[in-house]
Amino acid sequence: MSVMAGARTPLLAEARRGFAPWAGLIVLMTLGVTLAASADRWQGGWAETAARLHSTMLITVPAAAAAGCWQGGRERRRRTEELWGTVVRPPLVRFLVSALPMALWVAAGYLGAAALALLATWPYALGDAPRPALVPTDAFVSGAAVLAGQVVGRAAPWRLAAPLLAVAGYVGLGLPAVALSGAGRYLDPALAITETSVPVWWQPVAMAVWAGGLAGAAVLAYAARRRWTALLPLAAATAAAVLLTQTADGPWRTDPLAHRQVCDTSVTPAVCVNARYAGALPQLTEALSDVTGKLNGVRNLPVRWADRYGGPRAGEAQLPSLTPLGWSLVRGRLTDPEEFAWEAVGALQLRADCPDGPASTADDAVEDYLAPLPARQHFDDLDAHGDAKHRAEAAERRAARARLAAMDDEERRTWLSAYFAARADCDPSGVPAL
Asked: How many helices (H) and strands (E) does the chain have?
């Protein structure tokens, strides 16, 4: 029977009892609570879910390293170090028997939390596809952190080593995102990413080799009989680091979906939304149906409301932002369709390529006609009870609204066509009087 075969029974014992299962459960519960607390901000999109899951590495890796460190000091706390020194098994085998079960449990805890997050997103996803590419790598890195932490726990004879390692890991992983702007930040396994960032195909593999190589080098340097073998994983980690940092375009790309739109051209202006949220288009069109109905037959309008990466082009108006999730869009539903329509009207009035200027009574009347907000009455009441200047301005606004509302349909369409023509020319002086 081989040495590792003889270690199978204690390996299973470590996996079933002791601190290892609890470490996996702690990771699962910690990530579950963290993700649940911010569910509004990721549960409606696969990209947001992937980015949020990856951001938890800032917690998972230091916690995994601290758990490994605590496990590494177990024999010293039990005062059984000398007894273990008499065991026939080589030091490396004894190390792996203690460390591997916890590494697997911690990785399983992360995978469990990731699976629950993906299941929670599935009913509300609107257009993009699941992004599981980083999940196996992040789980592997978490397990590697356990191995590296166990080396520290065996080498550092202090009870506070585990919490100090957790703090150092948190600071060390968070610092590159704040302090580094160059390629060095790509070595950070907890590097914050946006919902429009996708890794190139080799990035997860290179990151796994980078983290696993460092952990493997630490383990072999500490426990192997031929310590020079630590140079092999160290060389692999170095090669992965070069690949991650020296590639011309870096290991991340912009999601191609971020540059695509899907549109409903049955209304004018057309309603377009980023392809990542294509499933939201019907409810956006419904939210704007009163506006587009009142604009039927009006000329000089923007061609569409656009939700384009980098902003609208000439002849387009900006669709009110759906991101970040958790504000106007929560779990695939608009939180306030009336406010969404009001913001969309404001985008029609203020073209992106025109300088901002003070709002006129005509702007207020158009806004009130196309997308009245219930809160407007509250502000009107405040102005009506203000000083003489505010009362006069409020009376002027009410009179302009009443004149626009009193026009017949043809007269109103003609007036609105002239209004939007002036707005398209960035010429507030050309706005017709009310």
From this structure: 19, 8
- Global pTM reads 0.88
Of 61, 42, 62, residue with least CA distance to 116: 42
**Residue 44 to residue 325: CA distance in whole angstroms:** 7
Q: For residue 268, give the amino acid letter.
A: T
Question: Beta strand pairing status for 329-330 and 261-264?
Answer: unpaired
**Distance between CA atoms of residues 431 and 343, nearest Å:** 20
Element spanning 97, H or E? helix 91-121
Give me the average pLDDT of each 10-residue run along the chain (434 residues).
Answer: 52 76 95 95 94 96 95 70 59 88 96 97 92 96 97 88 94 72 83 91 96 97 91 96 85 90 95 95 96 95 91 90 92 94 90 65 91 74 70 84 93 94 83 83
CA angle at 334 for the pair 333 and 337, rounded to the nearest 5°: 145
Q: What is the DSSP string of 177-235?
A: HHH--SGGGGG-TT----TTEEE-TTHHHHHHHHHHHHHHHHHHHHH-SSGGGGHHHHH
Upstream peptide bond of 157 is cis (omega within 30 degrees of 0): no
Contact 62, 165 (CB under 8 A): yes
CA 138 from chain centre, in angstroms, equals: 15
Other C-beta atoms within 10 Å of 406: how many? 9
The secondary structure of residue 324, as a DSSP letter, is S
DSSP string, 138-192: HHHHHHHHHHHHHHHHHH---TTHHHHHHHHHHHHHHHHHHH--SGGGGG-TT--
What is the rounded distance in angstroms from the CA atom of residue 326 to the CA atom of residue 13?
Answer: 45
Backbone angles phi, psi at 280, to 5 degrees: -85, -10
The crossing angle, in degrees rounded to 10, of helices 46-55 and 57-72 is: 30
